[in-house]
Amino acid sequence: MINRELCAIMLSMGLLLLISISVSQDSEPLDQKVISPENAVLESITFGPQTVSGETLWRLVIASDAVSANLAKVETTLMNASIALSETGIDGPDAKEVLSRLVLADPSVIDCITIDPTGTVREVEPSSFESIKGVNLKSQEHINNTISTRLYSGFHLIKAVEGVYAIDSEMPVFDHNGTFIGTVSLMFNSSQFFESILAPFQPGGNSKIWVSKADDATILYDTDPSQILLNESSPVYQNYPELLVLSDRMSIERTGYGTYEFLDQSHGETIKKGCYWTTIPNQGTQMRLVLTLELQP
Asked: Could you give the residue ranges of the DSSP H alpha helices within 164-221?
């Protein structure tokens, strides 16, 4: 069995390779402030995969594996519900029973619903969300796309009709003749979901693992609850230009590393931080998994 140190070294080499590939193939040209000579020297000499311990990078590896495994588990459970609804249909007591079992897929689940081909909610569990039954959701892009393409949606961050920001996933449902009859949806609390997965891997102190939305840096999970659902335009971040530059890089680079200054965990003082990020595999909302480390002055 390959030991952790060797795996981490391999990750370091892979990380450097992926960074060069993502910059050359996927990224638009960055302006001068992103990769100034001073920043390039700082990051290449004082912070990067070549200067960090293998155990530190291994923490990000196993955290990423855990997130992927749990998302795959949710997807499989949703697929099984779709298969069951192929027999029961998307209406009635039997369909509600399928949804009741689906709600148990993860403690972070908010609700599960069936939607007909017009985009109208037909059944919902738990019953505390019964008020959304009959509501048309086709205006939500990922639901409309699933109805139009009849393909699985992946995981999407949405503002739900239930009044919360959450992650939703849609699976098409077909009857036994192969006719499309609607979709089944599972929606979960993103911060609760990621917290339970990442808790065993948190380094503690002013270092942490967190999750953000790639395009605008919306924080889906952070060990500092006050930052959850903030994004790069939030006032708290505007006095930290290095952090804003790094957010721009994260939006276009699937994996990478960098340094910045921001408040410590107690918001008592500004400290220097370094971070590594990678991409959570998903065909819906692009998400980054980030390991932040406090750097000694």
From this structure: 190-198
First to last CA, the chain: 38
Q: What SS3 state is found at 200?
A: helix
Q: What is the average pLDDT across 228-252?
A: 95
Query: Would you give the distance in Å from CA 10 to the centre of its chain?
Result: 24
Asked whether the beta carbons of 178 and 103 are under 8 A apart, the reply is no
In the three-class reduction of DSSP (H, G, I as helix; E, B as strand; rest coil), residue 202 is classed as coil
Percent with pLDDT over 90 in the chain: 74
The Cα 58–Cα 11 span in angstroms is 8
How much is the pTM? 0.83
126: cis peptide before it, omega within 30°?
Answer: yes
User: What contacts 14, CB < 8 A, 6 or more positions away?
Assistant: none
CATH of 69-189, one of 3.20.20.140, 3.30.70.100, 3.30.10.20, 3.30.450.20: 3.30.450.20
What is the C-alpha to C-alpha distance for residues 16 and 73, in angstroms, rounded to an integer? 30
Domain boundaries, the chain: 69-189, 202-294
DSSP 24: I
pLDDT per residue as tens digits for the range 236-246: 999 999 999 99
The CATH architecture of the domain made up of 202-294 is 2-Layer Sandwich (3.30)
